[in-house]
Amino acid sequence: MFKCWAPYITLATGKFETMSKESNIIYIGRKPPMNYVLAVITSFNVPNTKEVVLKARGQAISTAVDVAEITRRRFMKELNVDEIIIGTEEMPPREGENRARNISTMEITLTKEAKPNEEGKAMQEAQAAKEK
Amino acid sequence: MFKCWAPYITLATGKFETMSKESNIIYIGRKPPMNYVLAVITSFNVPNTKEVVLKARGQAISTAVDVAEITRRRFMKELNVDEIIIGTEEMPPREGENRARNISTMEITLTKEAKPNEEGKAMQEAQAAKEK
User: What is the pLDDT of residues A18-65, one digit of tens each?
Assistant: First the structure.
């Protein structure tokens, strides 16, 4: 279900990048939810985008749900939660530990019905809210 | 979607009780995931139980996913994730704050095909794992 995530992890910090190069997938990490909300709105702003997938692991799963809910309720009312998938990924053991760790994963697929001229407004609002 | 949760919150600690009186609903709080895994297995152990719902809010959402995944992968292979619903709940403002807070919620519905004599074994295993 999850392809290799390694390229998106900044080694020094262990944090995920906000957006992958593979479009329409947003990896949720430790940044504040509003950063990712803006990324979702930006993704939907690209013409012909009807689907955005949020991917998260471990503690970031709660943030992913926050991102989906904030986007849907405050900025893009026409957004639907299409599918939620949970899973488990095996991670290499931490330094000094022997056992591989299992970590929970989640994918939230967001879809929308196309309505032009709505996203630009949503993006401005999100940007304003973030800057507050 | 969420009925009143207030009766299940211990006021002094703000923690949820592991199991509600309403059967088949398990409220996920801040205890270690294995406590809730055991509660899930115990619930399925009651005759004619085909469905258990995990409910969580905020940071406990990640724990709820952990509970579903651990139960499904380690103890009850015949378990299915039937439905996952996310939502938002409005909470009264904290002391000294003015605004109501929005908190994300999640419900995971677990179902299984009935296979007698499997749950007893799963429960013993879970208890042993918890005691380690």
Answer: 444 346 999 999 999 999 999 999 999 988 888 999 999 999 999 999
| Domains contained in chain A, number | 1
Question: Which positions in chain A touch B86 (Cβ < 8 Å)?
Answer: 65, 68-69, 81, 84, 108
Task: Measure CB to CB from residue A69 to each of B62, B104, B108 and give the nearest one.
Answer: B104
Task: Considering only CA atoms, give the Rg of chain A.
Answer: 16
CATH number at residue A117: 3.30.110.20
The interface predicted TM-score (ipTM) is 0.72
In angstroms, the CA B54 to CA B76 distance is: 16
Min CA distance, B20 vs chain A (Å)? 22
Q: What is the largest CA-CA distance in chain A?
A: 54
